Amino acid sequence: MTQRMGFFTDTSVCIGCKACEVACKEWNHVPEDGLNFTGMSYDNTEQLGADTWRHVAFIEQRKPLAEQEPGVDHEGPVPPLGAPPDAAPMTPMAPGEGGDLRWLMASDVCKHCTKAACLDVCPTGALFRTEFGTVVVQSDVCNGCGYCIPACPFGVIGQREDDGRAWKCTLCYDRIGDGLEPACAKACPTDSIQYGPLDELRERAAARVATLNDAGVDDARLYLADTDDGIRGAGAFFLLLDDPEVYGLPPDPIATTRDLPAMWRHAALAAAGLLGAGLLAFAGRA
């Protein structure tokens, strides 16, 4: 297999522009998913699904945060465009002096799990793992059974009402096969979404967390970067600034098919026991 590729999404620099959502839809011809008022800040899609392969979440919190740069006060005259960075006065601040409201933004996507339950339950082979380690649905093979939908611990996959087939992020399989970045990463103006070899991304992410921690952002942590977790690590992992639950993510995801081998073994033993008991009963009558 080719070197495993993936996404690292650094939510600390996400500005909520939704360029990733638009780029994903345009490149992959994903249908419009509803321009609804959800009451959840500027979030009008709420969750991932068949017609939402990238979803930008907006979380408004009553929690002290000075400014975008931790521990720095940006108050003062606004410098003209093109002025050098030192033209903006910045002075150290105590925690909480910048107010008690902070706005978290994060672009969510399919996790392309190492232990992918959707792959395990697909009866037709419509879901397969590519040479890049990503998980892709072949729409022309999918029979619409829907088994993959409850199997996903993140609720990523959905079915389209018009044909019943399952759809989700492909990590732009067609683009990366030609050496191009996925559309969402290409469109991201702040490099919040980074694409590359997974091992390199994990090293980069660990360094970024250390930088944020040193700057006083103690809440910064990685999510799904651990290969010993319940899905054996993800091909798309995140830097979060709060607990996963705040972003609508499960805190300790586990592949829903993890216990299937043991279940089958127990079922086989039970069946063998019933068969043995039946044979003994039949032999006793004889």
Automatic annotation (TrEMBL):
PROSITE patterns: 4FE4S_FER_1 (PS00198), 4FE4S_FER_2 (PS51379). It comes from Actinoallomurus spadix. Residues 5-35, 101-132, 133-162 form the 4Fe-4S ferredoxin-type domain. Keywords: 4Fe-4S, Iron, Iron-sulfur, Membrane, Metal-binding, Repeat, Transmembrane, Transmembrane helix. InterPro entries: 4Fe4S_Fe-S-bd, 4Fe4S_Fe_S_CS, FDH_Electron_Transfer_Unit, Formate_DH_Fe-S_su. The chain crosses the membrane at residues 263-283. This is 4Fe-4S dicluster domain-containing protein. Residues 65-94 are annotated as: Disordered. Its main location: other. It is found in: Cell envelope. Residues 77-87 have a biased composition (Pro residues). Gene3D superfamilies: 3.30.70.20. Residues 65-76 have a biased composition (Basic and acidic residues). It comes from the Bacteria.
